[in-house]
Structures are given as C-alpha cells and as structure tokens.
Specification:
The complex is a heterodimer of chains A (about 400) and B (about 500). Chain A is of the alpha/beta class. Chain A is about 20% helix and about 40% strand. Chain A has one domain. Chain A has helices at about 10-20, 30-40, 55, 120-130, 355-365, 370-385, 390-405; strands at about 85-90, 90-95, 100-105, 135-140, 145-155, 160-165, 170-180, 185-195, 200-210, 215-225, 230-235, 240-250, 255-265, 270-280, 285-295, 300-305, 315-325, 330-340, 345-355. The longest helix of chain A is centred in the last third of the chain and has 17 residues, at about 390-405. Chain B contains 13 helices and 24 strands. The chains are: A alpha/beta (about 400), B alpha/beta (about 500). The interface of A and B includes residues 334, 338 and 340 of A.
Chain lengths: ~400, ~500
C-alpha cells in the first residue's frame, strides 16, 4: 500500500518532513520515492506479519539530535582490543584509527540505486541518512585485527544510517558490531556488503539495549566466487527488533554461515529474517538459529534459501529451534526453501517446545538446584548457535547469554 | 494382479496424450445463462427447489464475494480469470435425478464405465466379491446423477445423498452444519462457491454408527466453459466412523476450467472421519495449454473430545492446484492427520499443504507431505501449524520432502509454525533432493527401464502416504504416480 493510496500515518508524515528538510542528492530521491510507494511495513504485508513496524512506530519521530553526553567505553567486545568505529545517533564520532588494509571514507553514490529500493526500510535509510550517500568501509588486504563497529542510539527520535562494506579480492576482515540503545529511539541501519572474489568477512553482532528501542537493520549483500561471509547475531530484543539479511551468492562455491540467537523477556520482540539466493554452483550455506522466550516475549524467525536454476551442487542447511519458558511467550517461524535446481541438498528443521522435564529431573537428582539446572540446559541449548564463532568472541556471546540467564 | 504389473499394464493402455480420462461425453445439457449475477444464483437455487434461507445464504455470499479480491499469495501464475465468461450451472437434460439406475442415460453410464466407477451395484458385487463394498455418488458437471447403495446405508441410519437432495429432505441438518467450518466470508473462492455451488455430497453418520462401507464421490467436469463448484458436507456424530473417497477427472480442453469446491467435515465426540482424495483433473497438454484450475477449500473441525480427522490426498492432475486441507482441533485429545503426495509434471503448478490449528488440550497432529516435481512444473508445500494458549500438551510432527526430477522444475517449502504456549511440542523437518543415482543405478542394473526405475523409486518415496489410502485407491494411486511421471526422464 503506497503512501499515495493510504492516509500516511503520523510517523510516515514525520519521515516526509525530515526528507524534505534534506537535500535531494546522492540517490536520496529515488530511495524516498521507493519508500513512499511502500510505506512502513505492517502485519498485512506477508514478510512482516510477525513484526508490525507501522503499529510499533505509532508516534511521529523527528530526526534524532546528536548524542550530547560522552560516549561510554564499549561494553560489548570490550576486551577484544579492536580498532573502533563509532556511530552515535547516525553520526560518526571522531576519526577512527583503522588497521592497515582498512579505510573508512564517504562516497556520495556508493552503490547505484536499485536493490535497496525493493525493501521499504532499506529505502528509508537511503532517503533519510544524515550524510548524503554512504560511509564505505573498504577492506583491501588481510586485516587480522578485528574492527569494532559501535552503533549507539539514544533519545526518542529516529536516525538512519547507510554503511557499505567492500571487501576486495582475496581480502579478509572481522567486524565486531554492537547495537547499543538507551531511551526509546528508532535506529534504522542499512548495511550494503560487497564481497569480491575470494574475500572473507566475519561479522559478529550483539544487540543489547532498553526494552523500548526499535531497531531495524537490513543487510544487502553480494557474494562473489569463492567468497565467504560468516555472521552470528545475539539479540535481546526491544520494542521491535529486526535483523534482516539478504544475500545474493552470485559466484560459485560461496561459503555462508548465518547463525543467531534471541533471548527475550518482558514484552520484548526480536525477528531474525534472512534470504540467501544461490546462483552459482557448489555453494555451501549453513544456518543455526536458537530462540529462548520468557514472559510475554515474541520471537520470530524467517529464513529462506533460494536455489536458482543451474545452481547445482548447492548444499544448504537451516535449523531453527525455540524454547518457550512462560505461558504467554510466543515463537513464530517460517523456514522456506525455494528450489529450482535438482542436484542439490537442502534441508531445514524447526522445533518449538518447553524445557525437557526429564533432563531437569535428572540434573536435580544429581543435586543441582532447579534454577541452575534450567540455566545450564538453556545455555547448552543456545550455545549451538555460537559453535562456529572464534573462541574469544564466542566467550563474549556466552558471557552475555549467561548474564541474561542469571537475571532469571 | 500385483500392483507393479498393473502399473505397467496401465501405462501400456495409455494413449499418446497420457491422459485416459480426456474424452468428453456427447450429451444434451442444460446451462444457466453465462456469467454471474444475482439472476444466475436465483436460477440455480430455483432449479434445485431450495428453501428460502438457502437462497438468502447464497445471495449474502455473492454480496460478500463482490467486495473481495482474488488471492495471489500462492506460488502459481495464471492469467486473469474472467468470472463472467463461464457457465455456473450445467446439467444433463433429461432431469436432474434418476429414480433408478436404469433411467440414467446410457452415455453417462458409459462415461462412468470408462472412468472405472462401478455404478451398478451388481457389478460391484460381481466384480469384487468378498471385498468391501463402496457406495458411490457420481457428480456430472453441476448435478449428482446417481447414488448407489442407498437402501443399505439407510438401514444403518447413514444419510448419503447429493447435497441438493439433502436440502430438500433434511434441510434442518444441512442448515445446522453448512458453513460452520468454512464461513461464506472465509475468502474469495469460499464466497464464490457459497454463492453458486451446484451439487456435491452430504453425509451424516448418526451417533455410534460405523458406516458399513466406504463412501465415494466421483466428480466429472464435462461441459465446455463450465466451472464446477461442488460442496461436500460430512458430519460424523458422537462415536461415528466414516471413510470417504473422492475422485475427479475432466475432459481435455484447450481452455482452462475453474473448479472451486468446498469440503466441510465435522467430527463430534469420539468420531472419526477419514477423507481420501485422488485428484486427477486434466492437467493441460505438454505445452501447458488448457487444464483445470483447482482452487479448493477443505477444512475439518474436530469439535468433540477424542475426535479424529484424517486427510489423505494424491494430487496428480490440474494445471494449477491451490488446496490446503486443514484441521481445527477444538476437542480435547482430538487428532488431525494430513498425508499428501503431490506430483507435478509438464507445466503444472501446485501450491498445496495443510493447516493444523490446535485449540484443545493434548491435541495431536501429523503432517507427511511428499512433493515430486518433474518437467517444467512447480510444486510448493505451504502449511501452518499453530498452537493457541489453550492448547496445552499439543504435539505436531511435520515432515515434508521434495523430490526433483530434471533441472527445469521447482520445489518450494513454505511452512509457518506459530507457538503461543510453552506446553506444545512442534517438530518440523524438510528435505529437498533429487533421485539417488545409486538407487537408480541399482534398479536399472536389475533390468528395469529408466522410466520403470523412476516410478519404482518414486513410489517408494511416497510409501508413507500411499499406505494410508484405502485399498481400492492405493492401487489406483500407485498407477497414477507412474502415469504422471511419463516423459519426465530421458
């Protein structure tokens, strides 16, 4: 439903005002037109049926101002000793000192318009990003030191960020990305990935913030021949949280991992959505997503593997498993396979249930108290999603999860 | 005759077009005027001598339909349908219902004979001595032409007749249940069917009765440019049991024929309904021309505690299949089952699956779906499993496997899993692969031709589903699997 067809909501009107205050350069106009055509996604839109952005963003929001207070030191990945890029409310803070082989610059038109216009929130990010065009993080060599990317959000406004990551041929890097939010802001991020031949990118994301944060992060990626992209997400949800990744594997023999876990309590919501489109031959894609939902939390997982005609020998495996810990907890899943080639191995598995009473009983019979037994079982359950993360980062993921469990 | 041998025989008997039901019957027919408006609906209703409330029901559905949009979320493509360019009612001229089987025009009997439906009881008795009897209701375009074994069923207290007859003879029963599982406003095709449905079958099995024989309906679409909109309503009262079979065929025509049926099942306390379908509507020719659009709504409600509804389907026909036989599990400890084989070949498109809605405590459901795509076809499984907060102890197991034969076909899996209670356990597995080269090699090495080998392996792939079909259908289904895959290899 386009804005021209339905009466714009107050939030959509506020976005229009914000757009009109910006100069219409660098592809902004096209992005805005695409957003205006689609409007804020809502539950009547199939892909958004479990994440109603229009309903969540009822109140109009103006563009967030700059963060006034000092930026606190990094919580997530604090010990990893990484180079750091900080964005606060959509603004770059300071001059990042990056390791050799990595450069951050701004480009008016980093990626030609087209793809992002197909996704309403990606288009919105393109239209309302504060700086015209996009920040581009370019990786030109084998960067061994991880790069910490902090996305800090505060206040009650909305801010949009467009970031491109280009990993050149044979180059490699690791990004430790943290989404930190206090107050009730709407943080909308678009990450455009370009992984060239034989490039490798590892991206580990922790999202932790207040219960009122609305966070939508869209990743649009292109993966060339023999390139690899590994991603793992740990999210504790918010008023609405959606990490949406769309990867197009254009080359042969790409290597993709898209793991994740959501741990939700209170009335928090988290949605992990991904589409991997296999177009070359012999690609391998693996995905393990785990969810734990307590209180009145709502978790959603939507995964889709497309295998194009001719993408033979694709091997794609998808797993989603959710644990519901309370009467009002919800888990929704849609694991899809769209297969147009015959010589492939594709599978998905999905389960939802409660903690295994027998396992609990067994542990209690060994003298472990109920709370510890539950925590231990849940930790074991979610750890599977972190099994392929390098050790030091994995520790961070597990430590965060443990903190959450200890609060119970 | 062993099933495999019979499969081979059946294939030999095939014409080059591979669809033995492709003939059309030359019979004088009466049509309603082309197009759809209130007049058409009044015409259908008057023709059937329906009570006023039924006409009211139809007109109300028509008004709803006018406000609705044709759904387009399924993974199928078809050119826009002109709903005004079809006949909504066609009946054989010599009167709708025949007093005895001898009054049925010979052309019709011949048609059914060609289809292999034993209309005459004697033939049934002579043909399958000692085996279970099958009562048949045969629907030809818009009207039911013959119902067999009525007397014997009456003795058991089972009501088995066409729905137009039931509307005259048991209006109170029909009124009590009609539209309670699939309301008129459910969706576009449900509203359309509710407005114009012409005939179908009504079954009522009273309390404690185990229906003494399998009930069966054969649907035949014959007239050109006609849509078939049948309506089936099956009610199993407390403790009753019924097994119902449905078969469908249509002649070969260049244009597309629309089939939008509704099937409603109601199972009261401790009742069980087993519903089996072998759907073999004309799928269109090798270039994708013609064929039936099969847009069917099938839904069962387990109203009573410990009731059970089981759907088994073998879908091999139709140009487009859009069909989701579903169970609403309301009663405590009620059970829903869905066993499906969907085979697409040529240019066929299928988007089929099921919905299991768990409302009652300790409800259980099981979904086994096997999709086989060959040629340039597209085959999608689409399903929903939901447990509401009241469904404590609900369990579901889903398995959907897809098999691809050839590199121009497509297989999709779109399951929705919605859990609203921690006391439900849902498991879902899906795989997509091609026929195993090793197995093919082994079977060919034993002297089977490539086509026979493929048919054997595919039948093995479908075994979990086929074994749930009643005997009479299992053999037919096995033959169909083979026939449907004709020309998919080599």
């Amino acid at each position: 439903m386009s804005l021209t067809q339905h009466k714009p909501t107050p939030a959509e009107t506020a976005f229009r005002e914000a757009y009109e205050a910006l100069d219409a350069s660098g592809g902004r106009a096209q992005s805005w037109a695409a957003f205006a055509e689609q409007g804020l996604p809502h539950k009547r839109v199939e892909e958004w049926k479990w994440s109603d952005v229009r309903q969540t963003l009822r109140q109009p929001r103006s563009q967030s101002g700059a963060v006034e207070s000092d930026i606190s030191p990094a919580q997530a990945f604090g010990t990893a000793g990484a180079a750091e890029i900080v964005f606060a409310n959509g603004r770059l803070i300071g001059e990042p000192e990056l390791p050799e082989g990595a450069v951050l610059h701004r480009q008016d038109e980093a990626n030609p318009p087209g793809e992002r216009e197909s996704y309403p929130l990606a288009a919105l990010a393109g239209a309302l990003t504060l700086e015209t065009g996009a920040y581009v993080l370019e990786i030109n060599g084998e960067v061994s030191r991880p790069i910490r990317l902090r996305l800090i959000s505060e206040g009650e406004g909305a801010h949009h960020l467009r970031l491109s990551v280009v990993v050149r041929e044979n180059a490699s890097a690791t990004i430790l990305e943290s989404h930190e939010g206090e107050g009730a802001p709407y943080a909308n991020t678009l990450v455009e990935l370009d992984l060239q031949r034989n490039a490798r990118l590892k991206r580990y994301i922790i999202h932790q913030g207040s219960a009122d944060v609305v966070n939508t992060t869209t990743t649009l990626g292109h993966v060339a021949e023999r390139a690899g992209y590994h991603q793992a997400i740990l999210t504790f949800g918010g008023a609405l949280t959606r990490f949406d990744a769309r990867l197009t594997c254009e080359g042969d023999e790409t290597d993709i991992r898209l793991d994740g876990a959501y741990l939700l309590d209170g009335q928090r919501h988290a949605d992990l959505t991904s589409v991997v489109d296999h177009r070359g031959e012999g690609s391998v894609t693996q995905q393990v997503v785990k969810g734990v939902v307590d209180d009145r939390g709502r978790g959603a997982f939507q995964g889709r593997f497309d295998v194009a005609r001719g993408a033979q020998k694709t091997d794609a495996q998808m797993q989603h498993h959710a644990l519901l810990l309370s009467e009002r907890a919800q888990s929704n899943a849609k694991p899809e396979l769209m297969i147009f080639a015959d010589d492939v191995q594709c599978a998905h598995g999905n389960t939802v249930g409660a903690l295994d009473e027998n396992a609990l009983f067994y542990m209690r019979s060994r003298g472990i108290d109920a709370a510890s037994a539950r925590a231990l079982l849940i930790e074991a359950f979610i750890s599977e999603a972190f099994a392929h993360i390098p050790d030091d980062v994995q520790e961070e993921f597990i430590a965060r999860s443990r903190e959450w469990l200890e609060k119970k | 005759m062993p099933a495999v041998k019979e499969t081979v025989e059946d294939v030999k008997g095939l014409e080059s077009d591979k669809y033995k039901y492709g003939f059309s019957t030359e019979i004088e027919q009466e049509f309603a005027p082309k197009g759809l408006d209130e007049e058409t609906i009044r015409f259908i209703s008057a023709k059937k001598g329906e009570p006023d409330w039924m006409l009211e029901y139809r007109l109300n559905a028509y008004q709803r339909w006018l406000t609705m949009e044709e759904p387009h979320w399924a993974l199928v493509n078809f050119p826009p349908i002109d709903y005004q360019d079809a006949y909504y009612y066609a009946e054989p001229k010599s009167g709708a219902k025949y007093e005895s089987i001898d009054d049925v025009p010979q052309e019709l009997l011949d048609t059914y004979e060609k289809l292999g439906i034993p209309l005459k009881e004697q033939e049934v008795l002579a043909g399958v001595k000692g085996s279970a009897k099958v009562a048949v209701d045969a629907v030809f375009d818009s009207v039911s032409v013959a119902t067999t074994f009525k007397k014997e069923l009456e003795k058991a207290g089972v009501i088995f007749m066409s729905i137009s007859e039931a509307l005259r003879e048991h209006p109170e029963l029909v009124r009590k249940y009609l539209g309670t599982v699939v309301p008129t406003s459910d969706h576009f095709f449900a509203a359309l069917n509710s407005a114009v449905f012409s005939d179908g079958t009504f079954v009522y099995v009273p309390e404690g009765v185990r229906c003494p024989m399998e009930l069966s309906t054969y649907f035949r679409m014959n007239a050109e440019g006609t849509g078939q909109f049948e309506r089936t309503l099956i009610v199993a009262a407390k403790g009753a049991y019924v097994s119902y079979l449905e078969g469908c065929t249509a002649p070969m025509r260049d244009e597309n024929q629309l089939h939008a049926a509704i099937v409603e099942l109601v199972a009261e306390e401790d009742a069980e309904i087993k519903y089996s379908t072998v759907q073999n509507w004309w799928p269109g020719d090798a270039d994708g021309k013609g064929g039936v659009y099969n847009f069917v709504t099938k839904r069962g409600e387990c109203r009573g505690d410990r009731s059970k509804i089981s759907w088994t389907q073998v879908e091999t026909g139709s140009a487009i299949t859009w069909k989701y036989p579903s169970c609403i599990l309301k009663g405590k400890e009620s059970q829903g089952e869905f066993y499906s084989v969907a085979i697409t070949n040529g240019h066929q498109q299928a988007d089929t699956g099921t919905k299991m809605i768990h409302l009652g405590e300790n409800t259980r459901s099981r979904i086994i779906s096997k999709g086989i795509s060959a040629g340039k076809s597209s085959n999608a499984y689409r399903g929903l499993v939901r447990a509401n907060p009241t469904a404590k102890g609900a369990r579901n197991f889903t398995q959907c496997d897809s098999l691809l034969i050839g590199d121009e076909c497509a297989a999709h899996t779109v399951p929705y899993v919605e859990a609203r209670t921690p006391h439900a356990t849902f498991e879902h597995e899906a795989t997509t692969s091609k026929l195993s080269e090793d197995q093919l090699h082994y079977v060919r090495q034993r002297g089977l031709s490539e086509e026979d080998a493929v048919a054997l392996l595919v039948n093995g792939f479908c075994k979990d589903v086929l074994q749930h079909l009643p005997m009479e259908f299992a053999v037919e289904a096995q033959a169909l699997v083979k026939v449907s895959l004709e020309g998919s290899v080599g």
